[in-house]
Amino acid sequence: MSSVSHESAKAALEAAEARFIANNPLSKKQHELAVGALPGGNTRTLLHTSPFPLTMKQGKGAHVLDEDGHKYLDLVGELTAGLYGHSNPVIRETMLSTFDNVGLSLGSTTVQEHKHASLLCSRFKLKRVRMANTGTEANMHALAGARHYTSRRKVIVFSGGYHGAVFSFPNGKAAPNTVDKDDFVVVPRYNDIGLAVDTIRSTPDLAAVLVEPMQGAGGCIPGSKEFLHAIQDAAHEVGALFILDEVMTSRLAPHGLGFELGLKPDLVTMGKYLGGGLAFGAFGGREEVMAVYDPRVEGSLAHSGTFNNNTLVTSVGYEALKRVFTEEACVELNERGDGLRERLKQVTKGTKIMFSGRGSLIGVHFVDQAVEVFTCGEDIQGKERRDLRDLFWFEMLEAGYWTTRRGFVALILETEEKELEGFVEAVGKFAERHRDIMAL
Ligand code: PMP
After folding, report:
1. Which keywords appear in this protein's UniProt record, sorted alphabetically (predicted)?
2. 263, 232 contact by CB (below 8 A)
3. Could you report the average pLDDT of every consecutive run of 10 residues in the chain (440 residues)?
């Protein structure tokens, strides 16, 4: 990589950022106000973008509209939770009818929570399930359950793994805010069978192995079938539980990605879109393991949460999964995602832009050298080009596409094919426009 093209990348990025500032005065103003109440103007770290984030005012169908009046095709899809888009009539109708006919906070068990739970069990092949408010909570309770069930403490996770706000393992280490940090053993490479199996066999006091079947926040890196089966088998060999984090991936196949790959996890954690757009988490699996949460049993674990069985989320999540994201809709959406990824690869051939992922979830990476094997974040360490990634983000905004700054696309059901074609075209034009800095 010549210093000349680094210089032109810098110039292009500075110009794009200057246009961003000029085009978004109301978002800028809102950010300046927000810092007065929220540290950094933010209550969800991921959404902070320098020099300031865009403030969205409205979502309609497959689009979002910012405070300055720009309309974007929503390719963020609320990091997979926004699967149903912004205007689904089933969701609207269920919200209103639940409010009118049921009410919000009954302080009791309801028939509805059983309906939602039964649907989750049958769809995702779980014997028992419990609900929570977020994917983070689902993982927290699943881990507590695994520790109680095995009477052990340690948990094996993988570099690049993300299991929630307080369970994050970038670059082979537990992030500083990780809860029970010393209980985690981080395998330094995802998808490395030998390393994973050795670590599982040599870790004493191992309660569980916790893994995503495709790393989401870690860059949309699918786990190979062989890898996932090997760690499932090794976990069982040493008497530990195999916990599959499907918070992002349950949408990738009709019964979840684990089932698609023939896995039989002891516990599965879920969340995101399964609340139909409302806060949700769930964990479930084998009957004997989930029995640690049976309140009829002396010495069982407590699983509390005021909103665990909230009438709105159990109604909306249920109707949306049953009537909107049917098994057929799931297959179709993921096929569309595969087609989109292929077309994106075609229009960026020979450039530093690389796409990863599976089905309706796409990772976008910018690398200095061609990457032949991409099985874990470590494979691209030192080759990533944040400047190009940022340039892409600014220029996609200008072209009318709302993507995450980190390079993640999650399709939503309402997006029309011709709009995705428009995105492919915009990406192709971007690669062409910056050929001097984008060519490999
Ligand atoms: N696990 C995975 C794999 C996730 O991607 C996420 C959220 N990005 C979580 C857990 C945590 O979910 P939540 O943000 O609802 O706490």
Report:
1. Pyridoxal phosphate
2. yes
3. 82 98 98 98 96 98 98 98 98 98 96 98 98 98 98 98 98 97 98 98 98 98 98 98 98 98 98 98 98 96 97 98 98 98 98 98 96 96 96 98 97 97 98 96
The reported pTM is: 0.98
The token duo for 265 is 């996890």
Distance CA 113, CA 309 (A): 6
- The 3-state DSSP class for residue 420 equals helix
| Alpha carbon separation from 199 to 27, 106, 379 (Å, rounded) | 48, 47, 20
340 within 8 A of 362, measured Cβ to Cβ: yes
Q: DSSP readout, 2-43? A: -HHHHHHHHHHHHHHHHHHHHH-HHHHHHHHHHTTTSGGG-S
- Closest ligand 1 atom to 249 CA: 3
Distance 259 CA to ligand 1 centre (A): 19
The dihedral built from the CA positions of residue 325, 327, 333 and 334, taken in this order, carries a sign that is positive
Nearest-atom index, ligand 1, CA of 167 = 10
Ligand 1 pocket at CB < 6 A:
79, 134-136, 139, 162-165, 212, 216-217, 245, 247-248, 271, 281
Token pair 């690398």 in the structure block, residue: 367
> What is the Cα–Cα distance from 184 to 178, expressed in whole angstroms?
9
Spatial distance between the Cα atoms of 125 and 57, rounded to a whole number of angstroms? 39
